[in-house]
């Protein structure tokens, strides 16, 4: 078995173009299936047999055999990660954001950690907080519990939540940003564009 005490293996898969036009329940069903495919690839990289994947009454993934897991899906990409520690993953397309959204995702003190506010930084903050919310089993109502505490470099930042600090790693690709809760583990990303 790969040593999950030292590494995580986040997986990002492109959604095939024939599925990108789907909407509603059909889209959710396809994207969920593709995200589970990403999780299967992640398990193979970890040399794990996927256990029964269960969510609690709030929809938060429950560990299988002591392994935490997280999924994300957007119209163009899906992602997954497995870890022995609480984990989360999120992907967003970088796009223009309103001033109100900047205020919603972070406080002035969080924005002052950087020299400039930008869409890239907004989505770094957003995906980092979303990954932590997933790790904590909280929904978006928990957003105010997450605080960006440090920007370490272009690829890493730290988020505080519930008296714990989480190290987040970002991956940039094709106009998107993915964030994963990494903590003290090394990350080995797999990205498949088609």
How would you characterize the overall build of this protein?
It is a single chain. The protein is 27% helix and 32% strand. It has 194 residues and is of the alpha+beta class. Strands 7-11-10-9-8 form a 5-stranded antiparallel sheet, with helices on one face. A 4-stranded mixed sheet has the order 5-6-2-13, with helices on one face. The radius of gyration is 16 Å and the shape is globular.
Q: How would you describe this structure in keywords?
A:
Ribosomal Protein L22, Chain A, 4 helices, 4-stranded mixed β-sheet, 5-stranded antiparallel β-sheet, single chain, alpha+beta, about 190 residues, 13 strands, about 25% helix
Can you give the mean pLDDT? 92
Briefly note the CATH topology name: Ribosomal Protein L22, Chain A
So what's the overall shape?
Answer: globular
Distance between the termini: 28 Å
Count of discrete structural domains: 1
The top level CATH class name: Alpha Beta
Number of separate strands: 13
Taken as a percent bin, the fraction of beta residues is 25-35%
Helix fraction bin? 25-40%
How would a crystallographer describe the biggest sheet?
5 strands, antiparallel
Q: What structural class is derived from the secondary structure elements? A: alpha+beta
From the coordinates shown, what is the CATH architecture?
Alpha-Beta Complex
CATH homologous superfamily assignment: 4'-phosphopantetheinyl transferase domain
SSE succession: EEHEEEEEHHHEEEEEE
Across the major sheet, the strand order is 7-11-10-9-8
Rg (C-alpha, Å): 16 Å
Total of helices: 4
